[in-house]
Design brief:
alpha/beta; six-stranded mixed sheet; three-stranded antiparallel sheet; 4 helices; binds 1-O-pyrophosphono-5-O-phosphono-alpha-D-ribofuranose
Length: about 180
């Protein structure tokens, strides 16, 4: 079985992701000069993106993680966001960049931002590989560093999953409907 056969079309190629991460990473390095930001990745989907993005951020930075889940295995967000891992670092007075694979309804990020604010960081910004603005259900989210805008289709790859599969695909693609309508 080859996972690539389950993909209807490729939306963002690996080359496009690499090039966009270079642009975003270089911009972050300028914006955060002397600020030693914390790249706070949301598990599990953001790992491929944070790995590629961080290669291009040439200033000192730290990594940390949180785990937030909202899909619970399906193809649409439930709005019921479960936080199961909190950051290990002390965030007070620090510059935090939340790293996400996709912003869909925005429920996950608005929950995460609310929690992070209680730690009194110096600043909070968002970096996301993908933005699906047509699905947004919260209106106060500003994504400072966005990779690509995608249409309202179910996408997998580069960290994004369907039932925990497809995360390792080196591109972002649309999953064939027959896979999730089975
Ligand atoms: C996905 C994705 C975002 C969130 C986006 O996470 O990684 O965190 O949903 O959706 P929202 O904007 O509608 O909240 P998921 O719950 O599937 O967890 P995962 O990162 O482990 O795949």
């Amino acid at each position: 079985m080859n996972l690539n056969n389950d993909i209807k079309k490729i939306l963002v190629t690996n080359e496009q992701i690499e090039a966009r991460c270079k642009e975003l990473g270089e911009q972050i390095a300028i914006d955060y000069e002397d600020k030693k930001p914390i790249l706070l990745s949301l598990l599990r989907g953001s790992i491929p993106f944070v790995t590629t993005l961080s290669k291009y951020i040439s200033i000192p930075l730290e990594f940390d993680y949180m785990k937030a889940s909202s899909y619970h295995g399906g193809t649409s967000s439930t709005g019921n966001v479960a936080i199961s891992v909190l950051p290990a670092s002390k965030l007070e007075g620090r510059h935090v960049i939340i790293v996400e694979d996709i912003v869909d309804t925005g429920f996950t990020l608005s929950t995460v931002v609310k929690i992070l604010k209680s730690y009194n960081p110096a600043s909070i910004e968002i970096a996301s590989l993908l933005d699906k603005p047509s699905m947004r259900k919260v209106d106060d989210l500003k994504i400072k560093y966005n990779g690509f805008v995608v249409p309202a289709e179910f996408v997998v790859g580069y960290g994004l999953d369907y039932n925990e599969l497809y995360r390792q695909l080196p591109y972002v693609g649309v999953l064939k409907e027959e896979i999730y309508n089975k």
